[in-house]
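Quick illustration, no need to memorize.
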Amino acid sequence: MKARIFQKPKNAMQSGRAGTQRWVLEFAPAEARKADPLMGWAGSGDTQRQLKLGFASRDEAVAYATREGIDAEVIATPARTLKIQAYADNFR
């Protein structure tokens, strides 16, 4: 089983950062999605794709993956860059 461990990014549509401190363990897809012949909906028999585990810290997520024998890749959180500007800058 392959998985990735990452922090959820801030939602671009909202200014708050709720839930961005949690770490998520998400499994990689084991098989490709295919269209259902009757309805045309995309689906697969991969049930682990639906599973997302949340952890308070990166170390907890890595420890869980190690204990359960999951081959997990930790994706580092990019540094936040703030573009500080004043409202008056719009009129210069």
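The beta strands are 2-7, 23-27, 34-35, 42-43, 52-55, 71-74.
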